[in-house]
Fold:
Amino acid sequence: MTVSSQSQRQTQLAIMRRFAAYIRDGGSDLADAPMVNDVSVYTDPARHAAERQKLFRETPLVAALSSEIAPGAFRTFDATGVPVVVARDGGGAIRAFLNICPHRGARLVRQEEGRANRFTCWFHGWTYGADGRLIAAPEADRFCGGMAGRDHLVALPCEERHGLVFVIATPGLAMDLDAHLGSFAAVLGAMGLDGAERVKSGELPVAANWKYALDTYGEGYHFAALHKQTLAPYFRNDITIYDRFDRCHRVSWAQKDWDSWASKPECEWPVRAEPAGVHYLYPNTILFCGSVSPGKSYLTVFRHFPGEEVGSTVTHKAIYAFGGVKSPEHRAEVEAAFDATAHVVMSEDYVTAAEGWKNMCALPPGSTVVYGRQEMALQNVHRALADGCGMALPGPAGVREAAR
Ligand code: FES
Ligand SMILES: [Fe+2]
Structure:
């Protein structure tokens, strides 16, 4: 067993002890108090513009999993509105560049992903290496010096950590991943993301503010009503385990069949070596370890990106097999899990989000929403996001500190 799977087992066991106590004795992790938030946080164009700039142009974002860009491979990343290409050279070094040809602005790399150690612009044929340097340009002598300063692609801050590739979509900014991840780095480090193999990906659009979409990943309170047919048969909505790690968190909910082991000795518990739960990585990423079908565990990554309009969002969703795909049957199973989750999100969560966001726009100024004590993950998200773009924090607080 690897170090990360040993540490995952210990983490799972600790979480299961907390679940078992709540199942036996009643109770749940709860925030100290409800929190109110102004509806304008979801509807105000000025707030939206500030978030697009501060949270999506000046903050490290997950551009890919490390496993998605092998040596000699590349992948484009356009979701912030800034065209980016991330390339790993043959030696393993990873870099990100504006995917904009320095000659006259053409899109340099036009494939979503692939393998290449050089990129040739389709407009006039300038060719750049995976290190960003200009290798060749047709008839270079006739430019007579006009190529000065255009012999390198514009580099973007780019670093890998714990199996994730982070990019800041603005050239010249400093990348401080230790500060960005805070105490969540240890959680990511134990998750085994390096060995995750992508099986299927897609985009889930929703006509709602991106935070309304993000909110649907943070609480199980809605399982019994909204997901009556899909999740409620398997998951309880009354027992939540919640741990905050600075601006990030992990949240999970009890399964209905867990009564079967909660009163037994620990040696009989079905402790798994894979991570479990919904992990929020500030500002826009959800790493869901589990499945809408109990007993199966996959990694599903949801990255939420705001469009230009306040009420437009695209969620980039991809599912991965921990430790790689084992067989064609395993691949089919993971693909089916992607489809099952996408169905729940699109037909239930995002229908609600679109209607709810439209309703918010009809409310009078000064209206608020409330996040209950069991919606503590939302309380954390909205405090962190407001802080991240220099806005007033919602209140009152009440998110308890993580048990570390
Ligand atoms: S715009 Fe790329 S070579 Fe001219
Ligand atoms: Fe949901």
Residues 223 and 232 are 5 Å apart (CA to CA).
